[in-house]
Amino acid sequence: MIPGEPRAGQLLIARDPGDGSYFDRSVVLLLDHDDEGSVGVCLHQPGAQPLPPPLMELRPLLTPPAEIFEGGPVNEHAVIGLAQLRRPGSHPKGWQPLFQDVGSLALDTPYEELDGHFSHLRIFMGLAGWGPGQLIGELLRGSWFRTPATPEEIFATPERLWQRILRRCGGQCGLWSTWTDTPSWN
């Protein structure tokens, strides 16, 4: 996959499918990694929660499916917005770059100041988090594949995202994309 330290803009792709855990067949976008730990959001889990009333005006801007995604099991009340610029190189109010033309978006920015600036917007509730050294340990144990993210994958439909990204990676990773829910079929 990719050498070096984890960093914002990389995807973590779960390596052990079928274990039934929260991260089974998960794809996590890393938002931050440093000595204090790592944080990201799961890209593959549309949530059952409706948009809270303060965010309802953002519904027309949301990328389908226009709902809140479950970002992870940590700090489940944290709300994160990710947005892709419509015009690369611009810097709208409330937007902070993460990688390429994708960044985090302050969701308290007035709708009028957001409309027209973004080609994609997705909202996540909750985070995926790791304490100091925890993610590095999981990577060393082979729990995750790691690859650079693309804006298209961040805002893609969540169905079969795990398989699509593994296929893009090719090689040993691509083989994992053929994993079935019935291992005896392998």
TrEMBL record:
<comment type="similarity">
    <text>Belongs to the UPF0301 (AlgH) family.</text>
</comment>
<protein>
    <recommendedName>
        <fullName>YqgE/AlgH family protein</fullName>
    </recommendedName>
</protein>
<dbReference type="InterPro" id="IPR003774">
    <property type="entry name" value="AlgH-like"/>
</dbReference>
<dbReference type="GO" id="GO:0005829">
    <property type="term" value="C:cytosol"/>
</dbReference>
<dbReference type="Pfam" id="PF02622">
    <property type="entry name" value="DUF179"/>
</dbReference>
